[in-house]
Hints:
The complex is a heterodimer of chains A (75) and B (166). Chain A is mainly α and 75 residues long. Chain A has helices spanning 15-21, 27-34, 39-46, 50-73. The radius of gyration of chain A is 17 Å and the shape is elongated. With 166 residues, chain B is α+β, with helices and mostly antiparallel strands. Chain B has helices at 11-20, 29-35, 53-63, 83-86, 113-119, 135-145, 148-165; strands at 26-28, 45-48, 69-70, 91-96, 99-104, 106-107, 111-112, 121-125, 128-132. In chain B, the strands form 3 sheets. A 5-stranded mixed β-sheet of chain B has the order 1-2-5-4-3, with helices on both faces. Chain B has a two-stranded antiparallel ribbon with strand order 6-7. Chain B has a two-stranded antiparallel sheet with strand order 8-9. The interface between A and B is medium-sized, with 32 and 33 residues.
Amino acid sequence: MDPRNPQDCDRLDVREVLRRTYPSYGPAWDAAIEMGIDVGRLEYNLSLTPHERLLQLHEMTQTYELLRSAATEHA
Amino acid sequence: MSSSDRPRQNTPELLGRLVDAGVELVVVGGIAAVAHGSEQFTKDIDIVAPFTVENIQRLMAVVQPLAPRFYQTIGKPLVQRAPDDLAAFKNLYLQTDLGVLDVLGSVPPVGDYSNVVSRAVEMSLFGRRCKVISLDDLIAIKSHVGRAKDKLVEAELRAIRERLSG
Protein backbone atom coordinates (compact mmCIF):
# COMPACT_ATOMS: atom_id res chain seq x y z
CA MET A 1 0.00 0.00 0.00
CA ASP A 2 1.22 3.48 -0.87
CA PRO A 3 -0.11 5.79 1.89
CA ARG A 4 0.30 8.82 -0.39
CA ASN A 5 -2.16 7.35 -2.84
CA PRO A 6 -5.79 7.74 -1.74
CA GLN A 7 -6.74 4.90 -4.11
CA ASP A 8 -4.65 2.58 -1.99
CA CYS A 9 -6.32 3.70 1.21
CA ASP A 10 -9.09 1.31 2.20
CA ARG A 11 -10.49 3.52 4.94
CA LEU A 12 -12.55 6.69 4.96
CA ASP A 13 -10.02 8.26 7.29
CA VAL A 14 -7.46 9.80 4.95
CA ARG A 15 -5.54 11.79 7.58
CA GLU A 16 -2.45 9.71 7.07
CA VAL A 17 -2.63 10.36 3.34
CA LEU A 18 -2.94 14.11 3.95
CA ARG A 19 -0.04 14.12 6.44
CA ARG A 20 2.18 12.42 3.89
CA THR A 21 0.96 14.37 0.87
CA TYR A 22 1.29 17.91 2.23
CA PRO A 23 4.12 19.47 4.18
CA SER A 24 3.35 20.66 7.68
CA TYR A 25 2.94 24.42 7.66
CA GLY A 26 2.64 24.53 11.44
CA PRO A 27 0.48 23.41 14.37
CA ALA A 28 -2.79 24.86 13.02
CA TRP A 29 -2.32 23.04 9.73
CA ASP A 30 -1.59 19.79 11.55
CA ALA A 31 -4.55 20.32 13.88
CA ALA A 32 -6.85 20.83 10.89
CA ILE A 33 -5.81 17.46 9.49
CA GLU A 34 -6.39 15.84 12.90
CA MET A 35 -9.91 17.34 12.99
CA GLY A 36 -10.64 15.65 9.67
CA ILE A 37 -10.40 18.73 7.46
CA ASP A 38 -9.39 17.90 3.91
CA VAL A 39 -6.49 20.32 3.57
CA GLY A 40 -6.21 19.27 -0.07
CA ARG A 41 -9.49 21.13 -0.61
CA LEU A 42 -8.07 24.17 1.17
CA GLU A 43 -5.00 24.04 -1.09
CA TYR A 44 -7.29 23.89 -4.11
CA ASN A 45 -9.41 26.80 -2.87
CA LEU A 46 -6.28 28.88 -2.31
CA SER A 47 -5.29 28.28 -5.94
CA LEU A 48 -8.51 30.09 -6.94
CA THR A 49 -9.29 33.80 -6.75
CA PRO A 50 -11.85 34.89 -4.12
CA HIS A 51 -14.32 35.46 -6.95
CA GLU A 52 -13.79 31.92 -8.23
CA ARG A 53 -14.24 30.55 -4.69
CA LEU A 54 -17.61 32.28 -4.42
CA LEU A 55 -18.66 31.17 -7.89
CA GLN A 56 -17.96 27.61 -6.77
CA LEU A 57 -20.16 28.21 -3.71
CA HIS A 58 -22.87 29.79 -5.88
CA GLU A 59 -22.95 26.70 -8.11
CA MET A 60 -23.33 24.51 -5.01
CA THR A 61 -26.11 26.79 -3.75
CA GLN A 62 -27.97 26.53 -7.07
CA THR A 63 -27.70 22.76 -6.94
CA TYR A 64 -28.99 22.80 -3.35
CA GLU A 65 -31.92 25.03 -4.35
CA LEU A 66 -32.83 22.76 -7.29
CA LEU A 67 -32.79 19.71 -5.01
CA ARG A 68 -34.86 21.58 -2.41
CA SER A 69 -37.44 22.50 -5.06
CA ALA A 70 -37.59 18.93 -6.33
CA ALA A 71 -38.00 17.59 -2.79
CA THR A 72 -40.80 20.08 -2.10
CA GLU A 73 -42.63 19.11 -5.30
CA HIS A 74 -42.48 15.44 -4.35
CA ALA A 75 -43.49 15.97 -0.73
CA MET B 1 -38.83 28.45 8.50
CA SER B 2 -39.98 25.63 6.25
CA SER B 3 -38.08 25.03 3.05
CA SER B 4 -41.14 25.57 0.88
CA ASP B 5 -41.68 29.23 1.78
CA ARG B 6 -38.09 30.30 1.52
CA PRO B 7 -37.04 32.02 -1.73
CA ARG B 8 -34.01 30.79 -3.63
CA GLN B 9 -30.77 32.36 -2.53
CA ASN B 10 -29.13 34.51 -5.18
CA THR B 11 -26.10 35.92 -3.41
CA PRO B 12 -24.39 37.45 -6.48
CA GLU B 13 -27.49 39.46 -7.40
CA LEU B 14 -28.30 40.54 -3.84
CA LEU B 15 -24.74 41.55 -2.97
CA GLY B 16 -24.32 43.26 -6.34
CA ARG B 17 -27.42 45.40 -5.84
CA LEU B 18 -26.27 46.47 -2.36
CA VAL B 19 -22.80 47.45 -3.57
CA ASP B 20 -24.15 49.22 -6.66
CA ALA B 21 -26.50 51.25 -4.45
CA GLY B 22 -23.57 52.47 -2.37
CA VAL B 23 -24.61 50.70 0.84
CA GLU B 24 -21.72 50.80 3.29
CA LEU B 25 -21.03 47.20 4.26
CA VAL B 26 -18.43 44.60 5.07
CA VAL B 27 -19.10 40.98 4.13
CA VAL B 28 -18.71 38.70 7.17
CA GLY B 29 -19.86 35.19 8.13
CA GLY B 30 -19.80 32.14 5.90
CA ILE B 31 -19.50 34.04 2.61
CA ALA B 32 -16.40 35.79 3.96
CA ALA B 33 -15.00 32.47 5.15
CA VAL B 34 -15.42 31.00 1.65
CA ALA B 35 -13.88 34.10 0.08
CA HIS B 36 -10.83 33.49 2.29
CA GLY B 37 -10.65 29.83 1.18
CA SER B 38 -12.87 27.90 3.59
CA GLU B 39 -14.66 24.80 2.33
CA GLN B 40 -17.80 25.64 4.31
CA PHE B 41 -21.17 25.49 2.55
CA THR B 42 -23.32 28.48 3.36
CA LYS B 43 -26.27 30.17 1.70
CA ASP B 44 -27.18 33.33 3.57
CA ILE B 45 -25.33 36.63 3.34
CA ASP B 46 -24.15 38.24 6.56
CA ILE B 47 -22.96 41.84 6.42
CA VAL B 48 -21.88 44.36 9.01
CA ALA B 49 -23.16 47.84 8.27
CA PRO B 50 -23.39 51.18 10.03
CA PHE B 51 -26.93 51.67 11.31
CA THR B 52 -27.14 55.30 10.27
CA VAL B 53 -30.41 56.53 8.84
CA GLU B 54 -28.69 57.31 5.53
CA ASN B 55 -27.18 53.84 5.18
CA ILE B 56 -30.38 52.07 6.20
CA GLN B 57 -32.25 54.23 3.67
CA ARG B 58 -29.89 53.08 0.93
CA LEU B 59 -30.20 49.46 2.07
CA MET B 60 -33.98 49.56 2.24
CA ALA B 61 -34.18 51.17 -1.22
CA VAL B 62 -32.51 47.98 -2.47
CA VAL B 63 -34.52 45.43 -0.48
CA GLN B 64 -37.95 47.11 -0.41
CA PRO B 65 -38.84 45.92 -3.95
CA LEU B 66 -37.82 42.40 -2.85
CA ALA B 67 -40.68 41.92 -0.37
CA PRO B 68 -38.46 41.96 2.73
CA ARG B 69 -39.68 40.09 5.79
CA PHE B 70 -38.39 39.75 9.35
CA TYR B 71 -37.76 36.02 9.06
CA GLN B 72 -36.92 35.49 12.72
CA THR B 73 -40.22 36.99 13.86
CA ILE B 74 -43.26 34.72 14.18
CA GLY B 75 -45.39 35.09 11.06
CA LYS B 76 -42.50 36.66 9.21
CA PRO B 77 -44.15 40.07 8.82
CA LEU B 78 -43.29 42.34 5.92
CA VAL B 79 -40.86 45.11 6.79
CA GLN B 80 -42.97 48.24 6.69
CA ARG B 81 -41.10 50.45 9.14
CA ALA B 82 -39.41 53.67 8.14
CA PRO B 83 -35.59 53.72 7.82
CA ASP B 84 -35.19 55.96 10.87
CA ASP B 85 -37.07 53.31 12.92
CA LEU B 86 -34.95 50.51 11.49
CA ALA B 87 -31.76 52.46 12.18
CA ALA B 88 -32.49 52.06 15.89
CA PHE B 89 -32.29 48.26 15.59
CA LYS B 90 -29.13 46.35 16.50
CA ASN B 91 -29.50 43.85 13.66
CA LEU B 92 -31.89 43.19 10.77
CA TYR B 93 -32.63 39.58 9.85
CA LEU B 94 -34.26 39.85 6.44
CA GLN B 95 -35.69 37.34 4.02
CA THR B 96 -36.05 38.79 0.53
CA ASP B 97 -37.01 37.51 -2.90
CA LEU B 98 -33.27 37.13 -3.54
CA GLY B 99 -32.64 35.21 -0.34
CA VAL B 100 -31.68 35.81 3.26
CA LEU B 101 -29.69 38.89 4.28
CA ASP B 102 -28.52 39.35 7.85
CA VAL B 103 -27.50 42.94 8.55
CA LEU B 104 -25.47 43.16 11.73
CA GLY B 105 -24.65 46.28 13.67
CA SER B 106 -21.69 44.66 15.35
CA VAL B 107 -19.90 41.33 15.61
CA PRO B 108 -18.44 40.43 19.02
CA PRO B 109 -15.63 40.48 19.93
CA VAL B 110 -14.44 42.61 17.01
CA GLY B 111 -17.00 45.37 17.40
CA ASP B 112 -19.08 47.56 15.15
CA TYR B 113 -18.70 48.57 11.50
CA SER B 114 -15.92 51.07 12.19
CA ASN B 115 -13.81 48.36 13.86
CA VAL B 116 -14.49 45.77 11.17
CA VAL B 117 -13.97 48.08 8.19
CA SER B 118 -10.69 49.43 9.58
CA ARG B 119 -9.03 46.04 8.97
CA ALA B 120 -11.25 44.75 6.13
CA VAL B 121 -9.71 43.65 2.84
CA GLU B 122 -10.96 44.55 -0.62
CA MET B 123 -11.81 41.68 -2.92
CA SER B 124 -13.25 41.49 -6.40
CA LEU B 125 -16.47 39.47 -6.02
CA PHE B 126 -19.07 38.99 -8.74
CA GLY B 127 -17.62 41.87 -10.72
CA ARG B 128 -17.64 44.36 -7.86
CA ARG B 129 -15.04 45.57 -5.40
CA CYS B 130 -16.31 44.47 -1.99
CA LYS B 131 -14.98 44.91 1.52
CA VAL B 132 -14.55 41.57 3.30
CA ILE B 133 -13.70 41.08 6.96
CA SER B 134 -10.02 40.33 7.58
CA LEU B 135 -8.95 36.75 8.13
CA ASP B 136 -7.72 37.59 11.65
CA ASP B 137 -11.02 39.20 12.63
CA LEU B 138 -13.04 36.34 11.18
CA ILE B 139 -10.99 33.85 13.19
CA ALA B 140 -11.57 35.92 16.34
CA ILE B 141 -15.34 35.86 15.73
CA LYS B 142 -15.47 32.13 15.02
CA SER B 143 -13.43 31.48 18.16
CA HIS B 144 -15.71 33.73 20.21
CA VAL B 145 -18.95 32.12 18.99
CA GLY B 146 -17.57 28.66 19.64
CA ARG B 147 -20.36 26.47 18.26
CA ALA B 148 -19.27 23.11 16.83
CA LYS B 149 -19.73 24.28 13.24
CA ASP B 150 -17.79 27.47 13.98
CA LYS B 151 -14.93 25.51 15.51
CA LEU B 152 -14.51 23.57 12.27
CA VAL B 153 -14.44 26.76 10.20
CA GLU B 154 -12.10 28.36 12.72
CA ALA B 155 -9.71 25.42 12.31
CA GLU B 156 -9.89 25.77 8.53
CA LEU B 157 -9.19 29.50 8.70
CA ARG B 158 -6.27 29.04 11.10
CA ALA B 159 -4.79 26.44 8.74
CA ILE B 160 -5.27 28.81 5.78
CA ARG B 161 -3.56 31.64 7.66
CA GLU B 162 -0.64 29.39 8.48
CA ARG B 163 -0.47 28.14 4.89
CA LEU B 164 -0.43 31.69 3.54
CA SER B 165 2.32 32.78 5.91
CA GLY B 166 4.41 29.66 5.37
